[in-house]
């Protein structure tokens, strides 16, 4: 099961309660469900949370990979594997490649029961090429600039992670949110990486054309366009002006 959806929507909770239900069933207890069909499970392997081992000289990603390696070497067809966002501690392409390969290995070689929560929506394509893979998402809806968690597990993959909306809930300053929305819009529209792509295009000396399209917005203009003036406080407005000024004159 590949589970997608925004942060704080309940992906980790869904997987943890499944693991607890399996443990209760193995012990002969009742489980919190109308009905449950749970086969014999020899072990439950989990890779949940992010932590490092500074004393041992291991980064968060190294710890994650070591735990994943132990799971792949020890799990059997009777095991239940819980994986939460494998590959997030490295670059996007490396992380996606590792997550995809791990999911394939569990399906093709180990053939275990597994729940794999991820923000790599590309993993949903596994369901089209692997018969034993199914997609589920933790439902959420947008209402204006807010995200509402429905706390329901539904079939199918999610199309967004609502990261900026979750950042707003955590109290990130409005000027940072506005800049993030501007960059996100640029990435979605052009497929380029980073805010410097258009700057590179505009830095060269080009002859003006009367039929040329209007010049691309600067970073300050794009950030200003995305500001929510109804939510910003007077203090944040002063800070925002300073940040916008620094965007206009980075030196």
Question: Would you kindly provide a brief summary of this structure?
Answer:
By secondary structure, the chain is α/β, with parallel strands linked by helices. It is 43% helix and 14% strand. Helix 8 runs antiparallel to helix 9.
> Mind telling me the CATH superfamily name of the largest domain?
P-loop containing nucleotide triphosphate hydrolases
- Assembly context of the chains: single chain
Q: Proportion of β residues?
A: 5-15%
Number of strands: 6
Largest sheet: 6 strands, mixed
State the share of residues found in helices, binned by percent. 40-55%
CATH fold label of the largest domain: Rossmann fold
Strand order of the largest sheet: 2-3-4-1-5-6
Protein topology:
Blueprint (H helix, E strand, L loop, with lengths): L1 E3 L6 H16 L17 E4 L12 H15 L5 E5 L7 H19 L2 E5 L8 H4 L5 E9 L2 E10 L7 H7 L4 H17 L6 H7 L15 H8 L7 H15 L3
Parallel strand pairs: 1-4, 1-5, 2-3, 3-4
Antiparallel strand pairs: 5-6
Helix pairs in contact: 6-8, 8-9
